[in-house]
Specification:
Helix content is 0%, strand content 70%. With 80 residues, the chain is mainly β. The protein starts with a strand and ends with a strand.
Length: 80
């Protein structure tokens, strides 16, 4: 498992910093192009592909500040 900080730079760019991976402190930063889609008022879906090949989909309910994230690793395994 990893813990990260996401910073939306624009409607098309996101920077994420991984601060913990498998219980160990790290500092890995990557900026990616995203596709941001409004599903309904206050619910957004962001998708992007990381340089390691992982594809990430994140849902955010704005009012509740609820985040749901899934990712598909390069090998095709689904991780939630």
């Amino acid at each position: 498992m990893a813990k990260s900080i996401l910073t939306l730079q624009s409607e098309t760019t996101l920077t994420f910093t991984i601060i913990e991976k498998d219980g160990k402190e790290v500092n890995e930063t990557e900026t990616v192009e995203i596709k941001l889609t409004e599903i309904r008022p206050q619910l957004y879906m962001a998708t992007w592909k990381e340089k390691n090949g992982n594809t990430i989909t994140k849902f955010r309910i704005m009012k509740m500040k609820l985040y749901i994230q899934t990712g598909r690793r390069r090998a095709g395994n689904l991780k939630t």
